[in-house]
Amino acid sequence: MFHHSSKLQYHVKVDKPDPQFAKLLQQAIGGIEGEIRVAMQYFFQAMGARGDDRIRDMLMSTATEELSHIEILGHAVALNLEGAPVSLQEESAKDPVVNAILGGANPRHLLSSGLSAMPVNANGVPFDMSHVYATGNIGADMLANVTAEAGGRTLASRLYNWTDDKGMKDMLAFLIARDTYHQEQWLAVIEELGGMKAALPIPNSTPEEHEAMEHSYYYLNTLMDKEAPEGRWSSGPSLDGRGEYTVKQQPEPLGEEPKLGRAKEKSGAQKEQM
Amino acid sequence: MFHHSSKLQYHVKVDKPDPQFAKLLQQAIGGIEGEIRVAMQYFFQAMGARGDDRIRDMLMSTATEELSHIEILGHAVALNLEGAPVSLQEESAKDPVVNAILGGANPRHLLSSGLSAMPVNANGVPFDMSHVYATGNIGADMLANVTAEAGGRTLASRLYNWTDDKGMKDMLAFLIARDTYHQEQWLAVIEELGGMKAALPIPNSTPEEHEAMEHSYYYLNTLMDKEAPEGRWSSGPSLDGRGEYTVKQQPEPLGEEPKLGRAKEKSGAQKEQM
Amino acid sequence: MFHHSSKLQYHVKVDKPDPQFAKLLQQAIGGIEGEIRVAMQYFFQAMGARGDDRIRDMLMSTATEELSHIEILGHAVALNLEGAPVSLQEESAKDPVVNAILGGANPRHLLSSGLSAMPVNANGVPFDMSHVYATGNIGADMLANVTAEAGGRTLASRLYNWTDDKGMKDMLAFLIARDTYHQEQWLAVIEELGGMKAALPIPNSTPEEHEAMEHSYYYLNTLMDKEAPEGRWSSGPSLDGRGEYTVKQQPEPLGEEPKLGRAKEKSGAQKEQM
Amino acid sequence: MFHHSSKLQYHVKVDKPDPQFAKLLQQAIGGIEGEIRVAMQYFFQAMGARGDDRIRDMLMSTATEELSHIEILGHAVALNLEGAPVSLQEESAKDPVVNAILGGANPRHLLSSGLSAMPVNANGVPFDMSHVYATGNIGADMLANVTAEAGGRTLASRLYNWTDDKGMKDMLAFLIARDTYHQEQWLAVIEELGGMKAALPIPNSTPEEHEAMEHSYYYLNTLMDKEAPEGRWSSGPSLDGRGEYTVKQQPEPLGEEPKLGRAKEKSGAQKEQM
Amino acid sequence: MFHHSSKLQYHVKVDKPDPQFAKLLQQAIGGIEGEIRVAMQYFFQAMGARGDDRIRDMLMSTATEELSHIEILGHAVALNLEGAPVSLQEESAKDPVVNAILGGANPRHLLSSGLSAMPVNANGVPFDMSHVYATGNIGADMLANVTAEAGGRTLASRLYNWTDDKGMKDMLAFLIARDTYHQEQWLAVIEELGGMKAALPIPNSTPEEHEAMEHSYYYLNTLMDKEAPEGRWSSGPSLDGRGEYTVKQQPEPLGEEPKLGRAKEKSGAQKEQM
Amino acid sequence: MFHHSSKLQYHVKVDKPDPQFAKLLQQAIGGIEGEIRVAMQYFFQAMGARGDDRIRDMLMSTATEELSHIEILGHAVALNLEGAPVSLQEESAKDPVVNAILGGANPRHLLSSGLSAMPVNANGVPFDMSHVYATGNIGADMLANVTAEAGGRTLASRLYNWTDDKGMKDMLAFLIARDTYHQEQWLAVIEELGGMKAALPIPNSTPEEHEAMEHSYYYLNTLMDKEAPEGRWSSGPSLDGRGEYTVKQQPEPLGEEPKLGRAKEKSGAQKEQM
């Protein structure tokens, strides 16, 4: 069950409201790198977690923290929209600041939300829940979470680089720090469960006889005019310890040419296809 | 530039066509765990790759292979739909096999595609390209790729477990194998670039002064009636080597209660808000 | 800031797991009548609330409760999926119960989520955040909330009618009760602010001179072969107390025929249009 | 059956074409507050209306009127795009008006529609029909309609406030007026059917024994550090006349901690989860 | 301006209600081959039509007819849902007809719409307006319309083939007939404007100097192990009369290998990329 | 099976990087008129092609070419983003070029993709695969392909008109040329199969007895105050040679008024409806 306390997890101050930056911040709320995504992803993973109870608790606990991050950012957006113009007066019509509202801002902050945050990204596209990655496989899910946090910290860093507002930089520095920890937290779960080698290949419960293992360890070079690049992936023992990496240059098809024959009667095709 | 040869990368045989399995296979084509996704994700990552040219080549090469996997699965769907009924005849109306077409199959395989594959998932929801994760940060992108392959192999294993068609099991065993390699291929890129420790936290180019590092290494326990779970994440040196993990039990808010005051005039609010 | 305690807001028991009902329950999680929607709607309204602080508190408080409802329903879905088949064995292939998995269940519960809840509706369509209605106008927002709760209670009643599982009926009876209160809670806010008459027309801050009031109080009958239906809407004082309702039968257009003339050069039209 | 007459329902004049305002107007066509939405919502409600025939007629009649509003706004968008630049000439490249096309306008008005209206919102996001709320419950549907009209009038007022074009203000004043009536029209249906008290809780056909009525009348305060706000919702007789409002401070969970146990074999989980 | 008369454009009778067929019919309402699409496509094309006024009138007139087709199909869906079960009683639990409701029917017809039509396709995916193709180029638009009607008639034929309900076959025969005419109507517009040869290539207003015409008339064979297929497209005068078709076997790239170099500082990439 | 060679199909040069043009170019990648769409549409049509094998080969061959066009455009976007600002420095804050980044550019090029192409359109809306039109009817599919290429060439011409960058004009001239050929290529397939007259009405395999042919050849004029426009569509032999065109002025409904009666018990309606 969820509870709420009235103060924000971290303080939010905007020194100079900027409706353009309000638009950019939306990416951290409703973008695929954003906080709605991680909150919901961890929440749904928690509800489907089977096995080690510690992981379920961590997922629910961090989901709860991410909800608080939405709250932080939502307030930051609203503060950046304070004082934004709602009317195109004669005198300000040629003022670049007013024009910027239309040009660089999200017009729906004015038209649809009454100068507050929306669950959309920096293009105004609403977040959709297909981005909640939750497979029920703890290995796949932890990797999805590290990925989400890596994207999140990349975004927060770019926002930090962009703005020159001291209050916003302070808030972003906090979010960058939490994204650091969360990246490592989910990787640490993999460590705790035996490490990456033991986890691979995911799912590690798939029996070897379900796998055509002669195809499991070669790099397939489909580039016709280039040699395969060499590296950790092209030779040496495999990361899962089950094989040895090789390279397949200029691969030949192993299958046949697909043919479907004529169309079935009454299937709605043209006569010429039947 | 892309080229095509007429044979499939791997042979596709269906012993007993099954329109229900055709519907399940769609998840491997148009699902978020599917082949369109990885093909397009690697393709767009390749087009934006900066830095080590080997990685760009790998991304483009594997994108190309994944296109061939779409082709394999698309043929498998069509073969599973061979002979599916297109008409509700009196005699077959109570036949469970015919009913299964409507019940367990995707009706749009009949109504919309003329008995062939579609770029949709097992619920008939079209793939949308927001799932192409490509940040321009090679660390975040490699993790997104491992995640995608982990999801893909989990799905392929579930499809393998479900079906009892020998031809389909053979095809899936091939795809499981390739997903094994691709998981490790992208992890091997991280190894090649210095390993996970050096990569963390992503992006590793963010200066430490952009980060409120006092918040970078604690597990935040938002669960009110439980102790924080202990593990690799709660104590010991951090995975990035920059700090030491601790736990923050029962966290207090660090910010203030957010207040927006009265609504601006002409902002479309109710009078009572102004 | 959000917190979590480990027990569910209400107890969840499933007497006989039913993967078909798991699919139906998804509508109450990820449908437009579902709990993600109200949780997020109240959350975003709270973050943008201006004016009376009590309303902001209520929005945040009830958003928090709705998050707990997601948790209840997510657990109910997982319990209904306990024991669902993951393999099509020879012997069970003709078993209608197994077939029902494919026919009446959501195949992604098996393929994608590992037998647990997903943020999708009963058709498997992911929830998208465009359904978070939050205008910043407290009148419009309260009505959107009553609407959401009315849809929610209608859905919960239909689920109650459908199932014969005692545990599920118990859980749904709780949700029906909370939807009762929430409908009235948001209407009570309108009462508290002066009642519906004072709230109308929303926004009540729009000056009368911005409105062509000669068009504000007639029912327009666009049906050519029928009289306008009579009722509270067709005569008598208007609900906002500003006018008197009338009926306009067989309306005439007040505007001109629209004409755009020829296409601009270089606008990509056909020559014949220029 | 539908018919059309060639003139617009209301006259549309644009004094000074403004591609930026064309973009804003799109919200009133293809936004969730827009005319496609109400036209389609009333149309689908009409097609599913059971019970009092007057309501079906009203729904179809007003659906038809809303189609005429799309037509008005579509023409307004095209007129605002008259004369918009289609080419980046040297001399105009630094002209802020030309730049505004790219900055403040929707580039697809130029690239995709040939300078005319599109069924998208002010962010260029296409309208999707999931926003057609039609439950078959006349109470829920009427509330959805009042909500839609409240959102619509809020939007129209904001557009009115924004523009300084006299022709556009005249058109918007008409739309504001019609939204006034439509809000009240749907509320008047509830009055006609017995009033709000009789309608509540929606659906009013749910038997009381389907409802855990001990949970139907309390405000649940999930805020840990604040008292529940007091008002019409916290004490006194309930709006439906069936109970008395109370407050539940600091609620305790009524359920158990959810546990799913180990993962099923062959379910695609990691070995460690089984 | 639109008007409505109360009778349907064509009579709708369902001899034996079938909730499974209700689901299939949804494709003709809310599918990409369906009536909402053509109604809205012609409507938006009409509102943007520049040049010959006859075409604008035809577009608006046929848009209006298509609205009447939605009405026909919406009623057909509701009639097919008459008597569908809303409760899972003990005795009927094993009845295949009741099971078919869940298996072969759209559960949201029961849960969400109260047994009536919805603006979704046969998979329950809501129609989205991105499928309204309207470019402002009359040639491209007419082709889009023929395409839509070709898809529509294909779908209607498949529905006709599927059902054995006499009333439904009668209704579909009407829709098939109208789709016949509409296909030809839009092709006839191209004839009227000078014929296909004059219309090509679309847009025919693009000056030849904007086109690298040495690339305008060859078939590019990207298949490495097959000759280009021969036909009308591989030799002879071009359909637009401006050139002669040829074939380019085994094409060589004309460009360079793309290289982006190192990542920019502060762009959020990994250090190794900079 | 697919292969790749490292050079681009055509050379890509940007004389003066322009982040605004990068945004516009996105329409040609991820718009409905763009290259992802045609690549995937031809690919899926190929996988479902039944009948004449030449057409399957053409579809796969041209799908492969379109993939190469994505590659060209993706590189063009990245080159246009070279040097785009990633930080809002004091001195540049009032620089219109920097402001244009936020105003006229896609902010996600900066925030999400690290200055490279994304699978989105010019509004930043991701491409979704519902736009892959593939019916299995070769007539409908060829028309869908001509339509797609007509839209594509219209877009490419508009982009050509807009930009003044010589390199970009050169690239676009190539794409315009290929779109010319592809339009005609698919029309030539119809010619090869017997011509448009033989193809009509699509599907040409629908038996005449499935069609209410008394409704197949009249133009229905639903405009109440205008005569039907005259032209090729209103008189003379039909394009399919099966009938004669006529006009139906002021059409009367042929059906009855739809009535659904009272709502079913337990269907979740209001009491008043039952």
Automatic annotation (TrEMBL), chains A, B, C, D, E, F:
Binding site for Mn(2+) 2: E66
Residues annotated as binding Mn(2+) 1: E35, H69, E149, H182
Pfam families noted in UniProt: Mn_catalase
Cofactor info, note text: Binds 2 manganese ions per subunit. Binds 1 Ca(2+) ion per subunit.
Entry cofactors: Mn(2+); Ca(2+)
Keyword annotations from UniProtKB, A to Z: Calcium, Manganese, Metal-binding
An MF annotation (GO) of this entry: metal ion binding
Family: Belongs to the manganese catalase family.
Gene3D superfamilies: 1.20.1260.10
Residues the entry annotates as binding Ca(2+): D57, N221
Biased composition regions of type Basic and acidic residues, renumbered to the chain: 256-274
Keyword Calcium: yes
InterPro entries membership: Ferritin-like (IPR012347), Ferritin-like_SF (IPR009078), Mn_catalase (IPR007760), Mn_catalase_dom (IPR039377)
Name the record gives this protein: Mn-containing catalase
